[in-house]
Amino acid sequence: MEKIAVTFRQNGLRLDKALSELKPDFSRSYVAKLLEEGKVLLNDKNEKPACKVKAGDVITITEIIDTKSDIKEEDIPLDIIYEDDDIMIINKPQGMVVHPANGHYSGTLVNALMFQEDSLSSINGVIRPGIVHRIDKDTSGLLCVAKNDKAHHFLAEQLQNHTMAREYIALVRGVIKENSGMIDMPIGRDPKSRQKMAAVKDGKPAITNFLVMRRFKTHTLVKCQLVSGRTHQIRVHLSCIGYPVEGDPLYAGKNFDKLYKGGQLLTAFKLRLIHPATKKEMEFEIPLPKYFDEVFAQLEE
Predict the structure, then answer these.
(1) Do 38 and 76 belong together in one domain?
(2) Which long-range contacts (CB under 8 A, 24 or more apart) does 177-184 make?
(3) Could you tell me the residue range of the domain that residue 113 belongs to?
(4) Domain end residue (candidates: 61, 82, 105)
(5) Is the pLDDT of residue 101 over 80?
(6) CATH code assigned at 21
(7) Handedness of CA 139, 142, 146, 150 (dihedral sign)
(8) Distance CA 53, CA 62 (A)
C-alpha cells in the first residue's frame, strides 16, 4: 500500500489523470485496472476516475498482485555500470523487456534483477521491483534501479519534477537542415491503433530537444533530450516532424527497406540524477552500441 499527496500540478485534474502523473511508471491501462478493481482511494474513499482532485488530497494505492505471472529469478547477465546500497545503473541491451507483462513473463530485466539482488524497492509491487523508469524493448541504454523504497521515492520525485536528465542518440531517416530544435507536441494514445502513441490535442504535454551530431546522404544522427517523459516520446516526435527513427517497426512506415532489422536505432546514452543518499549529482554515459557502427559503415558506402 502506498499513499501519495496530490500536488498543485495535479490540482483540478481527473483522478485517473492525476494518478498517471504521480506514478509515471504506471501504464494507462494499469491505472484504469487499479481504479476498476477498487485499488485506489481518494482521501480514504472510493471515487470514480472522473472525480476531480485538489492539491493536498491523498491517494492511496493498493497494487494488484498478479499471481498468475509466476515471475522467477533468472541468471541473465547484466551490464551494471554502477552500484551501491541505494541504486543500480544498468545498461539495458536492445531486445530486453524491462518488466513482465502479457507475453513477456521471462527474460526481462526484472527476472535478471531478482537473481542478482536480494534487495529491491517494493513501490511498484511484484511485477516491477526496483523499476523507477522504463525504456522500450528495442531501445537500449541506461536505466536507474532503486534498491530500497526511500531511494525509489526520491528518484521518482526527480522524474516527476523533470530534474532527472535523460539523453538519447537516434539515427533518423532524412537529412535535418536545422542544427538544433525543440519539438513541443502533446502525446496520447493513437485513436487508430492501441499499440501506438501519437501527437494528439488532448494528450499529455511532451517536449523533446534535439541537436544534430552528424549528417549522412540519407540519414541524420541526432542527440535528443527529454524535457518530459512519455511513452514512445522520441519515436513519436521525430516521426511527426518527418524524420522517423531508422528501424522503428511502429513509426518508420512500411514502405521502406530497413537498414537495420533489430529494432529502432535509439539508445539512452546519458543519465544525470541526484543520488538519493548523498544528494550529490551523478552523471553516467555509455558509448554507442556496436550495431550503430555497422549501420554507419553501410551509410558511408
Answers:
(1) no
(2) 178/212, 179/211, 179/212, 180/209, 180/210, 180/211, 180/212, 181/209, 181/210, 182/207, 182/208, 182/209, 182/210, 183/207, 183/208, 183/209, 183/210, 183/237, 183/238, 183/240, 183/241
(3) 67-158
(4) 61
(5) no
(6) 3.10.290.10
(7) negative
(8) 18
Compute the residue count for the chain: 301
Residue that terminates a domain, selected from 158, 175, 192: 158
Q: What share of the chain has pLDDT > 70, as a percent? A: 95
Same domain, 255 and 194: yes
How many structural domains comprise the chain? Answer: 3
109/146 same-domain check: yes
249 and 182 belong to one structural domain: yes
Q: Catalytic one among 25, 57, 86, 136?
A: 136
* Mean pLDDT, residues 142-153 taken together: 95
- 189 with 236, same domain: the answer is yes
**Cα separation of 170 and 220, whole Å?**
8
Q: Is 66 a catalytic residue?
A: no
- Residue 65: predicted pLDDT: 54
For the segment 20-33, the average pLDDT, to the nearest whole number, is: 80
State the pLDDT at residue 126: 74
Looking at the domain assignment, is residue 278 inside a domain?
no
**pTM, entire model:** 0.77
Task: Tell me the per-residue pLDDT of 258-286, one tens digit each, with 9 for 90 and over.
Answer: 788 889 999 999 999 999 999 999 999 99
C-alpha 171/C-alpha 184 separation (Å) is 20
Instruction: Provide the pLDDT for residue 111.
Output: 93
State the cell numbers at 271: 543519465
> Does residue 23 have a pLDDT over 60?
yes
Average model confidence (pLDDT) for the chain? Answer: 90
Cβ neighbours around 65 below 10 Å, total: 10
In a domain, 20, yes or no: yes
97 and 171 fall within a common domain: no
Residue 69 pLDDT > 80, yes or no? no
